[in-house]
Amino acid sequence: MGRFHRHDDGTEHSHDHPHEHDHSHDHDHPHGQATALQGPEQLAELIGDHSAYRTGRERIEILEDIYAENDQLAAANRAALDAAGVHAINLMSSPGSGKTAILVRTLAALRGELRVGVIEGDIETPLDAERLSGLGAQISLLNTGDGFGGECHLDAPMVARALAGLDLSTLDLLLIENVGNLVCPAEFEVGEHRKAMVWSITEGEDKPLKYPVMFRSAGAVLVNKMDLAPHLDVDLDLFRRNLAAVNPDATVIEVSARTGDGMDAWLDWVRRR
């Protein structure tokens, strides 16, 4: 037991208080009176000056160590992929942007050309993995609610576990469909070689400014649901300017997962090693 003491100059030390006090002394308090000392001056005299003591919680930054451990395992994942000759793309987006629909078309187009594996990340359910089945790709389902606490992103340890469900020696390309979220997925390396993201025109032109880490991390930004453009009040030039403000080097590819328009440009980007 003790108190932690910090001075204004930043020096610190502690005061230990042994528990060998004699509490057997008498307390002579008149009836109806809590203490013989009354008022702030008498109270200060009793307790002394403890103004330099601080109580409460102190925030300690530990994120650097967490990311360092994740990045080490991400490097190990990448090394395993490199050893097997597999190129990995981490595909990210907000929920409902059309990632899975784009992957359906991607797998159908690459079938017979490239041997593809997919790590399908979702908090719960195999629904998206089931949509991708039957298209010639190996699928490894990764539910972050299953032993991972329902995480809103994939990280390197999760992907390492999912890689064990794939035969890397028989693959050329690995597509990692990350959990739908515009924040956390961009902060965690998982062993990919490149990152891409999907932004749908229903989401608002300000998203690159609101979520710069995500848009800055992507090598390619797929602008999806272009078939809805005639029916929406969307300013694509404004979106491009906002994107250029945070990531001027991103490749912008306008697509429609529903009609297939623009998919050739996306496939060309995927084929690049």
UniProtKB/TrEMBL annotation:
Residues 89-253 form the CobW/HypB/UreG nucleotide-binding domain. Residues 1-31 have a biased composition (Basic and acidic residues). Residues 1-35 are annotated as: Disordered. GO terms for biological process: protein maturation. InterPro entries: CobW/HypB/UreG_nucleotide-bd, Hyd_mat_HypB, P-loop_NTPase. GO terms for molecular function: GTP binding; GTPase activity; nickel cation binding; zinc ion binding. The keyword GTP-binding applies. Keywords: GTP-binding, Hydrolase, Metal-binding, Nickel, Nucleotide-binding, Zinc. Belongs to the SIMIBI class G3E GTPase family. HypB/HupM subfamily. NCBIfam families: hypB. This is Hydrogenase nickel incorporation protein HypB. It comes from Cellulomonas denverensis. The lineage of its organism: Bacteria, Bacillati, Actinomycetota, Actinomycetes, Micrococcales. The gene is hypB.
